Amino acid sequence: MQELFIYLWNNRESLHITTSLSSYLYTSVRNRILNAYRNQKVREAYIHSLQDFIAAGENITEEAVRHKELIRLVEQEVAALPPQMRLIFEMSRNREMSHQQIAEELNISPQTVRTQVRNALRILRVKLGVHIFLIFF
Questions:
Q1: Which long-range contacts (CB under 8 A, 24 or more apart) does 70-77 make?
Q2: pLDDT tens digits, 21-80
Q3: pTM for the whole structure
């Protein structure tokens, strides 16, 4: 109500009321109450949306950090493999080459490739643990 009277006083020179003053005041108060209610709903929805975003953002950030750390750990362990075994393993996993393709490129038998990949997986399984290993391979 007070805001309405301040508005009327500040705009008294330019304000032209075509209906009775009581009906103008009633309509103005009703509209201001409805606007305040609507604005409050919008604010609440915004705050709720912001809280959801913050909660999701924390989880996303935490998961991204964990994922990067796991990738770094796997890459570190792969780098620690013997050179020939690492080369065969990376060709198999990173370049997605078949055992036959690797054997042809390196001029070795497909059985040697299978053995090297199996040994690399065994070493990684032991060093990384079964749970971490299952996430990646």
A1: 70/132, 70/135, 70/136, 73/128, 73/132, 74/124, 74/128, 74/132, 74/136, 77/123, 77/124, 77/127, 77/128
A2: 889 899 999 999 999 999 999 999 999 988 888 777 666 677 777 788 888 888 888 899
A3: 0.52
